[in-house]
Amino acid sequence: QVAVIGSRNATYYGRDKAALFARQLTDVGLVVTSGLALGVDACAHQGALQGNGQTIAVLGSGLANIYPKRNIALAKAIIADGLLVSEFWPHTPPLAKNFPRRNRIISGLSVGTLVIEASIKSGSLITAKYALEQNREVFALPGSIDNQQACGCHWLIKQGAKLVTEVADIIDELQLIVSSAPVQLALLEDKNTGNTLPFPKLLDSVGFEATSIDLVVERSGEPVQQVQSQLLELELEGWIAQVPEGYVRLRRD
Predict the structure, then answer these.
(1) How far is CA 117 from CA 39, 209, 213, 250, in A?
(2) pLDDT of residue 106 exceeding 70
(3) What are phi and psi of 179, to 5 degrees?
(4) Fewer Cβ in 10 A, N or C end of the chain?
(5) Phi and psi (nearest 5°) for 136?
């Protein structure tokens, strides 16, 4: 098992990468463990279900009292192809003190913990601390230095956590531990199709963090109407996605 955890208030980037990494981890035979919380946790479970469907959710409440309520449908999906775990009596409510306590189970069940977006005071850092105490590996996904939700990840990297940019980084670090898994790293590597980038100047103006359309116009130096038209084409082709704060880039060159 590998734990995938992070912010409840994750950005589009964090949610997207949580689902992507979780799906790819299950594709190489690993089970994804998380906490069923909103944000990164939920996306990690969903990503795992899109892969081989093997995921474990550790609750901070009783099994008869799923929290948060909006994740009840997700919990049912996990039960069908995974496992719900709780050390509390079935009807225990979601008390705040129980969540840091359950984090030690998330890390303890896993050979490594991947942190995707976490503020410097995030509960995810508590899980990372437990992981170190349990002699487990800690991985962290870097983000923008302007993203407060990435500060915790950057702090972990400074403290010695392994910087991760692709699933292969995790597999390489845990190779001896997961040697029985059907690891096929070649399948996870990006393939260069040789196609030229559409509207490269405009595409270069959209970051992997949310970028407002005003900033895209400013960076590209193109007329607003042309920018809007080209952004629509890029969105339809899957290069970018529209979010409340503007646009985010989804793919590298």
Answers:
(1) 10, 12, 24, 17
(2) yes
(3) -60, -20
(4) C
(5) -105, 160
Cα 56 from Cα 106, distance rounded (Å): 9
Task: For 68-100, write each residue's pLDDT tens digit.
Answer: 999 999 999 999 989 999 999 999 999 999 999
Per-residue pLDDT band at 15 (split at 50, 70, 90): very high
- Which candidate, 102, 117, 112, 114, places its Cα nearest to that of 134? 112
- Maximal CA-CA distance, the chain: 61
Q: Taking the mean position of all CA atoms in its chain, how far away is CA 127?
A: 15
Token duo for residue 100: 């840091």
- The single-letter DSSP state of residue 63 is T
Specify the DSSP class assigned to residue 89.
Answer: -
Both tokens of 138, joined, read 């800690």
Backbone CA torsion sign across 149, 49, 252, 224: negative
DSSP states of 104-172 as a string? HHHHHT-SEEEEES--TT-HHHHHHHHHHHTT-EEEEE---TT-GGGHHHHHHHHTTPEE-SSHHHHHH
* Interior/surface letters 216-235, b for 16+ CB within 10 angstroms, e for the rest: bbebbebeeeebeebbeebe
> Could you tell me how many residues make up the chain?
253
